[in-house]
Structures are given as C-alpha cells and as structure tokens.
TrEMBL record:
Native source species: Cohnella zeiphila
Top-rank taxon: Bacteria
One term of GO molecular function: glycine C-acetyltransferase activity
Designated name of the protein: Glycine C-acetyltransferase
InterPro entries xref list: Aminotransferase_I/II_large (IPR004839), AON_synthase_class-II (IPR050087), AONS_Archaea/Firmicutes (IPR010962), PyrdxlP-dep_Trfase (IPR015424), PyrdxlP-dep_Trfase_major (IPR015421), PyrdxlP-dep_Trfase_small (IPR015422)
Phylogenetic placement of the source organism: Bacteria, Bacillati, Bacillota, Bacilli, Bacillales
Regions that span the bilayer: none
Alphabetical keyword list: Acyltransferase, Pyridoxal phosphate, Transferase
Domain Aminotransferase class I/classII large stretches: 41-378
Any matching Pfam family: Aminotran_1_2
Known partners and oligomeric status: Homodimer.
Gene3D superfamilies: Aspartate Aminotransferase, domain 1, Type I PLP-dependent aspartate aminotransferase-like (Major domain)
Listed NCBIfam families: gly_Cac_T_rel, PRK06939.1
Length: 393
C-alpha cells in the first residue's frame, strides 16, 4: 500500500533539526500549576491571562446553558443556530469594545479569515506588518487583493506603501495589537494618523490585547484612546476571556456585511450555547473586576525586570508575553527541556513560528501567578541559564 513517504522524510528532517515536538498531554485544569505525566509543573505558557478558564461564574454559566439549551447549536447562525445567548454576547462585546456591533465566530483564527476574505476584493490593497499573526496571513491569502508588507512597525515603510496605493478602491492597514511572539505593542496612534492622511481603513487584531491592554482590559483602542478611529477590531474569546471563539467588532455596516458574506459564518455551525453563555459571563467578570488587569501587569512588570536583572535578553517585550531569545531551534528546545526537568514549563517557539535564529522560550505571565511563583520561576531560569551558558556563571 502506498504510504506517506514524503511526509515521513520531512518529519525525520524535523527531528534532526530539533523541531520535532510531540504533543504533551496535561491531566489537570488550566492553572499556574499543572500536571503532565504524573509530574507537576509551574506553568508559564497559557494564554489564560486573567485566570478566567476556571472562574466560578464562567463555569456556572456554561453548566446552566447546557441545562437550558442542550449541548449543540443545531445549525449555522443564519438558519436556527442564533440563540438569544449569541445575541446577548454580541451586544455585550460591542459595548465592551465601544463599537456599534460585533459578530462572534468559532475562533479568533476564523474571525480573521472571515473578516479579511470578506472585506478585501481584487481592487483593494492590504498593507500588513511583517510579524502579523498566521491567521492574518492566511486570511489575506484567501483574497485577490494586492498584498503589501511593511517591516515590523516601520511607519516610514507603511507611509510609502500607502502613498503608492492611492489608486486602489480601498486601502486596509492590518496589524496585531500585541505581537504574539515578541510581546511588543503596535504603534497604533501613528498607524491611525497615517491611515487618516491616506484615506485607509485600520484593522487591528487584539487577540493578545483584549483583557490585557487598557485600564479596564478593553484592548488597543482603550490603551491609546482611539475610540471611533479604528474600523475593524478582531478579538479572541480563547485567551484572556478564558473560553473559546473569536469576534469582529466594528460599525453596523461592517457587521451586517459579514453576516451576509463571511463564509465561515455562513457555512459553519454556530458556537455552542455553553460557549456563548460562558463567554458572556467572562466579559461581565472582566467588566466587574478591572483589578485582574492590574494584577496581570504588576506580575508582568515584576517578571520582565527580574529576567532583565539576571541578564536575559527579553527582546522587545512590553506586555505579559516575555520571550527569552536564545537562537537556533535545537538550543532553544534544550533550554525548554532543562526548565521542564526542573519543574518549570515554558514552551519553546522555533522556526517557522519565528525566524530560524530567533528561537525563544516564551513566557506568558498571568494574573493568577503569585509572587512566590514568579520568584520560583526566576530561580529556575537562572539555574538553567547558567547551565546553558546564556548567563555568566
Ligand atoms: N490572532 C492572534 C494575534 C493570535 O495570537 C491568535 C492565537 N494564536 C489568533 C489570532 C487566533 O485566535 P484563536 O486561538 O482564538 O483561534
């Protein structure tokens, strides 16, 4: 029988390059302390920024929704799949984001595919930061728009590309709000000013910014005070909000258009009632508890300065995403394995997620980590850093 010899060869190549990563199976709930293979790890790799995955109100909302509606949603949204709980979630998200309307999708990834493939046509130009998330890249690939890429956060290049794009029907500038591999923040005020000068639309993916940036965690627009000046805000319900799903927030024209045109919306079954209800509860918890966001930032700042004081290279990080940049994939994997042996789980991120020589162990600090957790992690990182020659002994 024919087999996947070509694929097997590629897998063997991944092994020789230190890029083969079997899935690790966890036996405990999301949290700072998690068990895998019977061993407990202090964990710094979850996107559960505010600890909402296990919040009582969020869990209770899911259970009650299952009791009331059952587990499935029965159809796509446009047939019998739109429940009152979906509508309530969308109204809440629009209020949370300060937009006229919002539309929920099965994931943040899907939200990007849906929005980009719907908004952009063959006569349009899309201008994208080179470090934008894969779901943005994939969404753009689905369109016939002319794609232009600017060097990471280079406003000079962005301006040049905007100037060259005057003849297109629409110009859409797309950026992550917080970049997921480096933890730096997009210069949104500059992007918005340039977009306004060159009559372009602004599209921000706030997957790692919602629940994180802004005094009350509303994201990039709140952080920079740019209400009414960003045309598309993408969010995920799977990171700080702790559940699963994604959404697009913007004008009622945008949302009405997506509702009629976005293929992932039209052709995929609605998120389950339990997901919609628990997401709604999670947004309400966040709105009630802005102190969670403050705790997250206190922890992130403590950890970043602790790492820098030890002598680690934390790259451009300015958020709870803190990379320790190491270099080639094999050295990066070795460092992550050494930490795991010592009881600290911090995922290694290597090519193609980042450039070949920019392999890193990415730490994600959450509001749930205690000071003691952070100090334990710093001690462990110091030991591994010295053992691997990343820090002087
Ligand atoms: N956009 C960005 C910037 C992300 O980091 C992610 C998650 N990796 C997504 C979109 C996709 O979100 P989700 O996991 O909800 O599909």
């Amino acid at each position: 029988m024919a087999d996947f010899r070509v694929l097997a060869d590629e897998l063997a190549q991944l092994r020789t390059e230190g890029r083969y990563r079997p899935l690790r199976v966890w036996e405990s709930p999301q949290g700072v302390s998690m068990m895998s293979g019977g061993k407990t790890y202090l964990q710094f790799s979850s996107n559960n920024y505010l600890g909402l995955t296990g919040h009582d109100d969020v869990k209770r909302a899911a259970v009650q929704a299952i009791e009331r509606y059952g587990v499935g949603s029965g159809s796509v949204r446009t047939i019998v799949g739109t429940l009152d709980v979906h509508a309530a979630l969308e109204a809440e998200l629009a209020r949370f984001k300060g937009t006229e309307a919002a539309l929920v999708f099965q994931s943040g990834y899907t939200a990007n595919l849906a929005a980009l493939s719907s908004i952009l046509g063959a006569d349009d130009a899309v201008i994208s930061d080179e470090l934008n998330h894969a779901s943005i890249i994939d969404g753009i690939r689905l369109t016939k728009a002319t794609r232009k890429v600017y060097a990471h956060k280079s406003m000079e290049q962005l301006e040049k590309l905007l100037r060259e794009s005057a003849s297109f029907r629409q110009r859409v500038v797309v950026t992550d709000g917080v970049f997921s591999m480096d933890g730096d923040i997009a210069p949104l005020p500059d992007i918005v000013a340039l977009a306004e000068r060159y009559d372009a639309l602004v599209y921000v993916d706030d997957a790692h910014a919602s629940g994180v940036l802004g005094r009350s965690g509303k994201g990039s627009v709140e952080h920079f005070g740019l209400y009414g000046r960003v045309h598309v805000q993408i969010g995920t319900l799977s990171k700080a909000l702790g559940v699963t799903g994604g959404y697009v927030a913007g004008s009622s024209t945008l949302i009405d258009y997506l509702l009629h045109k976005a293929r992932p919306f039209l052709f995929s079954t609605a998120p389950t009632p339990a997901v919609a209800a628990s997401c709604l509860a999670a947004v309400q918890v966040l709105e009630r508890c802005p102190q969670l966001v403050r705790r997250l930032w206190d922890n992130a700042d403590y950890m970043r300065s602790g790492l820098q004081a030890l002598g680690f290279d934390t790259g451009a990080s300015e958020t709870p995403i803190i990379p320790i940049v190491i270099g080639d994939p094999a050295a990066t994997a070795r460092f992550s394995d050494l930490l795991a042996e010592d009881g600290l789980f911090a995922q290694s991120i290597v090519f193609p997620m980042v450039a070949w020589d920019k392999g890193r162990v990415r730490l994600i600090v959450t509001a749930e980590h205690s000071r003691q957790d952070l100090d334990l992690a710093l001690a462990c990182l110091e030991r591994a850093g010295k053992a691997e020659g990343l820090l002087s002994a």
